[in-house]
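Memo to structure team: turn this sequence into structure tokens by end of day. - J.P.
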Amino acid sequence: MGRKDKSYSKTLKEQAYEKLIGMQAFGESKKEAMKNGTDKDKIFSFDTYKTYWKHCKYFLEYIYQAHPEITTLKKARPYINEWLQQRVDQRLSAWTIQTEAKALGKLY
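Reply from structure team:
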């Protein structure tokens, strides 16, 4: 039996936060994870986590403003290129745009 209200119960920020928190692997060996092939779904540094979370929030704010009908991370994914192009148009540094792309890549 399904829910009558089909809207997703968690906000985009809550969904992203839970996903990034689940990837935290502080104190684990990155080299070991690379050997095992499990490094793609982990974040090994707290500073990296903070940076990725910050840039993911920027993307989610854009989704809230430009596409308020989007309620899940899965539905927001097609707008990543649109977001990155907007950041290029704002003339942000290549390093910043690359960091945002990596953060969103880790999120998805």
